[in-house]
Amino acid sequence: MPSHPPDHRGKRQRAAGRLCHPPPRRRVSNPASPYIVFENVEVRYSPLVRGLCGATLRIERGEFVFFVGRTGAGKSTLLKLLTREAAPTSGKVTLAGIDLGRLREREIPALRRQMGIIPQDFALLPRKRVWENVAYAMRAVGATRKEVRRRVPAILEQVNIGHRADAFPHQLSGGEQQRVAIARALINDPPLLLADEPTGNLDPEHSLEIMQILARLNERGTTVLVASHDVLTVAKVNRRIVTVEGGQVTSDSKSEAPARV
């Protein structure tokens, strides 16, 4: 069977994301050193299909940035490059001056411990209470029992879930479960917080509540990056919006004065 049958090319493009032609290569011109840089990044999944096509983007420390676009546009790939779930086929990705493409496999766990990662599906332990879910995550990264007892209540209060500390996951609403997932991402007091579709399973009211929590964390100095297709909620938060289409950054809008949320 031919490896690239002509009648399947269009179907592959629609299903897998994109067949694209990277834009002309360009370098980031500002000599200042930003916190995160994607420079002409291409991620290739096969000879025909690419996850990113020459994406160039710079993010300063302390920013709150939304990556928006349709499913398969490439916004989640940007986050996966930072966690090294994906690696660039070409181009360069740097975080705090570190070339992530050059990291060895054994160095990746340490990289991930320096960031908070919020999953879309909550991933809570069903037989453990709210405080135990956070405590378990802390113990897993080496925190002492004394540290756990001291920090867990404060972390839960940061995301407004302290009053539900003794509840089990099945007793929580979707918004409450997502708040616990955010709490677990805060156990190392990370300078960088990554969220991939954090409101994908929530109704509009709870979606806005989660974005408000992320905005407050950002106001305390945490760099927050969120991949989302929830354009209505994103518009209410009034933060920087980067649009991704076909694996390319097609627009980048910065708000001059972020609104209170």
UniProtKB/TrEMBL annotation:
Keywords: ATP-binding, Nucleotide-binding. GO terms for molecular function: ATP binding; ATP hydrolysis activity; transmembrane transporter activity. Residues 1-27 are annotated as: Disordered. It comes from the Bacteria. InterPro entries: AAA+_ATPase, ABC_transporter-like_ATP-bd, ABC_transporter-like_CS, ABC_transpr_LolD-like, P-loop_NTPase. It comes from Fimbriimonas ginsengisoli. The keyword ATP-binding applies. Belongs to the ABC transporter superfamily. This is ATP-binding cassette domain-containing protein. One of its GO terms (cellular component) is plasma membrane. Pfam families: ABC_tran. Residues 36-261 form the ABC transporter domain.
